[in-house]
Amino acid sequence: MQFVINARHSPDLCPTANAKIRQLLKQSAQEIPEIAKRLGVKVITVNVYGPDHEIWQSLRPTGSSRSETSRCRAASYSGTR
C-alpha cells in the first residue's frame, strides 16, 4: 500500500522567492528521515512542480502490520508532520 501527499503553497510562500521560507525548508528537510521513521513510513519519492507551487510525495508503510498502516493513515489525515 502506498500513500500520496499533495501540498501546495502560494507564490509568496515559495522557497525560491522567500528567504525565510527557504531557510525553514532547509532546516525541516533534514528532519524528514527521522519523522518518517517515527511514523513508520518510507519516503519513496518527492516531486516538486515549481511553476504550480505544488509538491507530491509517495510514501509506504515500513512494516506489514495493520497497526503500522493504521498509524500512517491517522498521520496523513491529521496532518501530522
What would you say about this model in short?
The chain has 81 residues and is an alpha+beta fold. 40% of the residues lie in helices and 28% in strands.
Describe this structure in words.
The protein is α+β, with helices and mostly antiparallel strands and about 80 residues long. The protein has one domain (about 5-80). Helix content is about 40%, strand content about 30%. It has helices spanning about 20-30, 30-40, 65-80; strands spanning about 5-10, 40-50, 55-60. The chain has a three-stranded antiparallel sheet with strand order 1-3-2. A hairpin with a 4-residue loop joins strand 2 (about 40-50) and strand 3. The longest helix is centred in the C-terminal third of the chain and has 13 residues, at about 65-80. The radius of gyration is 14 Å and the shape is flat. It starts with a strand and ends with a helix.
Number of domains: 1
> Percentage of helical residues?
25-40%
Outline: flat
Question: How many beta-strand runs?
Answer: 3
Let me know the average pLDDT: 84
- Flag low-confidence runs: none
Q: Helix/strand/pairing class, anyone? A: alpha+beta
Across the major sheet, the strand order is 1-3-2
